[in-house]
Amino acid sequence: MTKKIKHKELRSHTKHFTVLCDKNPLWKIPRIRLQFLVTILLSFMLAVGGFSLTWHMMPCAWKIARHIPGMDLDRETLKTELTERAKNYDLPSSENNKQEQAAFKPFFDCLDSYTGIAIYSGSERYFRTQHTADIVHSKNWNFFTNMIFQITYSNYASVLPLNGIEDYFQIKVEFKNETGELYVSSFHNSKLTIPWFLFSIGVALFLLLLLPLLFLRKKVQDIGILKDHILQMSGGDLNHPIASMGNDELGVLARELDQMRNTLYTNIQQEVESRRANQDLITAMSHDLRTPLTILHGYLDILALGRNPEQQSEYVRRCLQKTEDIQQLTDRMFEYSLVYEPPQSPLLVPVPLKNVQHMLSEHLDFLRLAGFQTSETIAPLYGQIEGDETSLKRLFQNLFSNVLKYGDKSEPVTLQISQKNDIFQIILSNAVKKDLTGIESNRIGLKSAEKIAKMHHGTLTFTQKDKTLFLVEVTFPLP
Fold first, then answer.
1. Sign of torsion over alpha carbons 299, 301, 306, 308
2. Taking Cα atoms as reference points, which of 372, 381, 370, 368 lies closest to residue 426?
3. How crowded is residue 158: how many other Cβ atoms within 10 Å of its Cβ?
4. Residue 71 DSSP code
């Protein structure tokens, strides 16, 4: 039964929660999006910083890499070889003399694809001929070098000559016909520069994606945790609290789910306790009612058979006594159910104050018949209150039943009725019996009366002075 209750409560609260989400959609609070934008901004700054730091480490890397055989140009070896080869060649007299240029071309055969030479001569430094490094004609090489130049020129031009791509030096050699001045261009740096540039880009991309991926991973984990908790709740397990997940939409959702879990758990526990208490009450009442009913049935059988005519009046008196006992038991059951049943809002209609006074006067008359002394003070009454007459009768019946049960008949019962400052006030006081042995008191009647007063937007307070005087004050607002 408990599991069915849990599923029923869960479906009801889930439906209510869904309606709340539809009316107040969490996505209108852009906290996750703001966090994600901040994460993207930080990632971009981190990526730029990582690229700049990595790129500026290239000179240190080149100092190490250039010692690898074949990585850098061996200047001394090249100088020696060019000096020896120059002795066998005549320097072209002009850059336009194609025949001399063709004859001089084998001079450059000793150069690798990363080395170029431009030759000048004379005091006026006339240009004679040149050989461009083969690597310069590569489309891929030009693409990457142009990209490096565009991206890094502003902060890298001072690190290595010609933006870190080209290095050069100057030597003089003696040709067969004259002295030439050679400007040697070396692009060996590009063996490391281009891969290092790609490595720096990779570092930047890694840093750019790192924080967003960690952010998304955390949110996916939170969603997974919420999913697990929802599955636990749908299975009836409401004992595991949902951990806090921050102040974003997922955090709000987690807190609301945990609040719903607590509410469900409390409601289910209250319902289980209420069912158990009601079952215990029914069991106890059934047992208590069986005895007077059995006795009553016996006396009625005797009366029906006409036995002992001289005792019939006594049997009638005993039957009346047992009916009073049964009435008290049923009243207790009714009062208990009224106190512990879910709150209900009665239909309140205008009730004239004269009608309320009449209800109270009837109860005073009954007290007089029961042997009590009464005293009443009633101020002029006019107007009305918002109330339910049936509920008001129950309230007054509970109050005066309390007087009948615990009141001392040797002292007067006083009733004061007045209205002032938009308040209708009733004060009932009575002396308490000195000997209450055997009289059970659970104050269910007073709790029931207090609940009815609250239903009418009023108040009920009671005090007992020195265990001898009991006073009840009831107030209702006047419209």
1. negative
2. 381
3. 7
4. T
Task: Of 253, 207, 202, give the one whose Cα is nearest residue 230.
Answer: 253
Pairing mode, strands 413-420 and 374-378:
parallel
Question: What is the SS3 assignment for 389?
Answer: helix
Please, which residues have CB within 8 angstroms of residue 223's CB and are 6 or more apart in sequence?
A: 250
pLDDT tens digit string along 159-212? 444 345 667 889 999 999 889 999 998 888 888 888 888 999 999 999 999 999
Sorted by where each starts, the structural domains of the chain and their CATH numbers stand as 74-187 (3.30.450), 346-477 (3.30.565.10)
Torsion, Cα 300 304 310 316, to 10 degrees, reads 30
- What are the backbone dihedrals phi and psi of residue 75, each rounded to the nearest 5 degrees, phi first? -65, -45
17-42 pLDDT, tens digit per residue, is 444 444 444 445 468 888 889 999 99
Stated as kind and residue range, the H or E segment containing 179 is strand 179-186
What tokens appear for 80 in the block? 């020696």
Cα–Cα distance measured from residue 31 to residue 108, given in angstroms and rounded to the nearest whole number: 67
Encoded tokens for 54:
């990595």
Which among 64, 185, 192, 182 is positioned nearest to 114, based on CA atoms?
Answer: 185
d(CA 135, CA 161): 18
How is residue 291 written in tokens? 């005895």
Task: Let me know: does 142 contact 55? Beta carbons within 8 Å.
Answer: no
Q: How confident is the model at residue 427 (pLDDT cuts 50, 70, 90)?
A: very high
